[in-house]
Each structure stands twice: as C-alpha cells, then as structure tokens.
C-alpha cells in the first residue's frame, strides 16, 4: 500500500514537472496534489519524545519515516554522561534515565545515548566517535558501553573498555509476528518453510544473529539454520535487517514479512505500545539466554558519571523497570 502510494505520487510529480512549461497544461487535480498518508504510529521514533531528557528542546522538528534519528537521544551540546547502548532495550531507556536523574539530579538533562547495534557502536568508537547519519556528521565519545556479556568482556580484553564487566539482566528469544499471526507461525521449524517471509538480524554486526542460529539449530539442526540464513536469504524470502529491534516490527506492520526472531522484550514493548504485533513463544529447550553487561570506556571523559550509571543499572529500581519488558535480573548463571 505504502509502496503503491509512493509510486503514484512520484508519477504525479513527474507529470507536473514535465508539463510545467506548457501554456496549455491542464491544472493538476486535487488528488494529484495530495501527500501520501501513512500511519504515524507505525514509524519511529515511538514513545512521544520520552526518549530525550533535554530540558530545552527548541524547535520541534520530527517527521516519521523522513526525519526522525530514532537511535540518538538527548542533548549533544554539553553532555555529562554519554551511553552507547546496544539497541535491545532502547524502549526502556526513557524510564531508566528518568529514575537515574531523580537520584542524581546533577545530571538532569545532561545525558546523551545511542542505541544502534552493538557492533556498529564499536565501529563508531574505533572511528573516535565520528558518525554520519544522513546529511549530518558529528562526534560523540562514549563514557560507558552496554551489550552482551561476552561482547563486553572481549572489548575489555581488546583494551577498549575498563573491566570488570557489570552484568545486570537476562533476555530470551521469541518469534515476532503480525497481530492474529496470519501466516500461522507456530514453531521455529515453520520459519524454514518456502513462502514464509522473514525479517532476520544481520550476522555481520548484530550479535543476536549468532544466538538465533543456535536456537534454529536446536529446533531443526543445521538444515533449518542454513535454510533461514542461507537458502532463504538467496531467494529473497529472508530480509536481513540493520537495526533488528526497529526494522522487524516495521516490516511486519507494513506487510513485508510474516515473522522474525527478536528478543522477547522487543515484542512485549510493541504489544504494550498498542501496535498490531504479537509473539510466539519458543520452548525453553530450543531457546537461548543472553546476559547483558556494561563497562566504562577506557579514557572516558566522565568516568565518575559512568560508574554511577553502572551502579544504578543493577539496582532494584532499574531492575523493576527492565522486568516490565520481560527481562530477568542476572543471577550469576551463564
């Protein structure tokens, strides 16, 4: 629907331009001048601006699907704490920041955080904080980094982070589907079927892809994992995402995919937000558990603030926020 509206509008625009200089050109109809509509709630940024702690926001200029910068939050003018957060819980950051600032008022309105995939955050760190988004290039250097425990430990070993890692919550996988599950997805085995369209995290920079492959192998052996991440990628029925937590529900809500494997917390957020999304549980014996952890970035400009956040992130108050979205407190397993 969106695609056809875009094509129709583009065709109308071409006709208008090509006939602009003709004195006998007919006036465009009112229908030809209409801007294509879309469901605003489908497109990020979601949460009505709550993922921004800036106290002075100046001009409000956000256009869903066009100008939104959904993974960059806060005021870059003079932050006192910069967090690089693997995007698996971008939706929890608003209440987490609010709670942190309530107990640390000296940082109110002074946080900036990014929620792109963990591998891309590392690429940005190695580029000395420089990043280009659309037409904008800026530099922001993190004070603390958050991802899976194994990833955090590897970056400590590499010398990018200062140890020890601080683990705080765990998460499990689920199958995200459109509401009412029209493709009747019931198990991981169903994802390997011909004709089932998938939106799956890209193994190149999304660590969850490794864990999804492990779950697929548990459910159907290497044959199933190879079908989902090999055969179906080649035939176009698996689309690899760049920001799996954001693109999978978008593809589902727009009718471009029938299912996708995500962290359960992401599906629960979509459901709590009232979006037409549902999830299908993966049995425990086929599932995997991720441990989330963080650490101070070596050479951090705001080391004390980073340590304060790391202390806060596994506090009872923070854990209660995570539990709203299905996360469980880390208890030393894995």
Automatic annotation (TrEMBL):
Sorted UniProt keywords: Signal
Record's signal peptide: 1-25
Domain of life of the organism encoding this protein: Bacteria
InterPro entries: ModA/WtpA (IPR050682)
Protein name stated in the entry: ABC-type molybdate transport system substrate-binding protein
Organism from which the protein derives: Labrys wisconsinensis
Lineage: Bacteria, Pseudomonadati, Pseudomonadota, Alphaproteobacteria, Hyphomicrobiales
């Amino acid at each position: 629907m969106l695609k056809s509206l875009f094509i129709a509008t583009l065709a109308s625009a071409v006709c208008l331009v090509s006939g602009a200089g003709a004195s006998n050109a007919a006036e465009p109809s009112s229908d030809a001048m209409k801007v294509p509509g879309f469901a605003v709630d489908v497109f990020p940024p979601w949460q009505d601006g709550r993922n921004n702690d800036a106290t002075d926001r100046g001009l409000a200029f956000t256009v869903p699907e066009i100008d939104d910068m959904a993974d960059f939050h806060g005021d870059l003018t003079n932050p006192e704490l910069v967090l690089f957060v693997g995007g698996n819980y971008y939706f929890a950051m608003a209440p987490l920041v609010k709670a942190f600032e309530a107990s640390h008022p000296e940082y109110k309105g002074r946080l900036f955080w990014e929620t792109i995939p963990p591998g891309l955050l590392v690429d940005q760190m190695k580029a000395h904080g420089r990043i280009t988004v659309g037409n904008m290039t800026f530099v922001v250097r993190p004070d603390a980094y958050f991802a899976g425990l194994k990833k955090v430990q590897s970056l400590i070993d590499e010398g990018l982070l200062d140890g020890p890692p601080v683990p705080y919550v765990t998460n499990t996988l689920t199958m995200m589907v459109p509401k009412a599950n029209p493709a009747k997805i019931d198990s991981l085995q169903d994802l390997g079927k011909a004709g089932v369209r998938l939106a799956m995290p890209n193994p190149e920079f999304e660590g969850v892809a490794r864990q999804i492959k492990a779950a697929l192998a548990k459910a159907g052996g290497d044959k199933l994992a190879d079908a989902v991440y090999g055969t179906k990628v080649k035939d176009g029925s698996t689309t690899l995402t760049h920001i799996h937590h954001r693109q999978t529900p978008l593809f589902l809500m727009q009718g471009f995919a029938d299912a996708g494997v995500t962290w359960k917390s992401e599906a629960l957020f979509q459901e709590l937000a009232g979006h037409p999304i549902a999830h299908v549980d993966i049995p425990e014996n086929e599932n995997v558990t991720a441990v989330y952890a963080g650490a101070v970035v070596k050479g951090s400009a705001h080391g004390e603030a980073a340590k304060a956040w790391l202390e806060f992130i596994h506090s009872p108050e923070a854990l209660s926020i995570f539990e709203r979205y299905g996360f469980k407190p880390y208890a030393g397993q894995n």
